[in-house]
Structures are given as structure tokens and as C-alpha cells.
Write a structure and sequence with these properties.
2 helices; 4 strands
Length: about 100
Amino acid sequence: MILVNTDYITGKELEMLSLVKGSTIQTKNVGKDISQGLKHLIGGELKAYNEMMNDARALATKRMVEEAISLEADAVVNIRYASAAIMQGAAEVIVYGTAVKFK
């Protein structure tokens, strides 16, 4: 499965199939949340939250790809990510794009 953030794939003629998307809401456990709260006081990278967001993006992308596969797509073009805070320590990540078939 080819995944790109452009609306074309060089050398390929595309047939548009459908919008596909994947999403997830992730949170960290209380212990990690407390340790990250302390980090807020002294500054620096919030590694546990960074890991949480990376995991969320990976899971959302996997779900989008599964939807594209179910349409027998060859690729997903024009991929975009968005995220939003749901509550303290929890975030939603959504990824979407256009499933395409090569002509």
C-alpha cells in the first residue's frame, strides 16, 4: 500500500475510490500522567506524551489502511492528520485520505 500526502503518484494514472479514515483516542496511565505533570514544572520534552501521540498516529494510520484494503485500493493519496485534546492527558488522532486504484 502506497501512502502519500500529495494528490498524485508520479507515473501512475489514478482512479479515485473513496474517502478513507482512521481514528483513535489515546490516554496515558495515571503514573505516567503524574510524572509528566512534574516535568511541566521543570521544563523539557514530555516523552510519555510524545510516545502516546506516535502510537495514536500509527494506530489511526493502520485503521485507515485497513479501510483502503477493504476497497481493494492500491494507494491512499492526499493524506492528512488532525488531533485534538479530549481531556487532560487524552487526545484524539484522525487520519484521512483518498483511496485510489491504479489504472
